[in-house]
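Revision sheet: structure tokens.
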Amino acid sequence: MSIDSRRVEKVFSVIEVIAKEGDGLVRVGAIADALRAENAPVAVWQIRADCTALAELGRIQLDPGSGAWVVAANEQSKGAA
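Predicted:
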């Protein structure tokens, strides 16, 4: 697995945690804060690019009303198994 792939997977795992602990809406700033707290900071522009990549894979979706990301329904069901 490449460094980029590992980073994208890490961003996705952080998104899942934030979504489960909150209302399901995940903002890029919250992802950056969580990664920084884990001593694994990532630039906000990179997190935005990773979110776009995850959206293209169908793993997350942008909520148009809030501008936040949400975990795609098919990804939520994977976590419940």
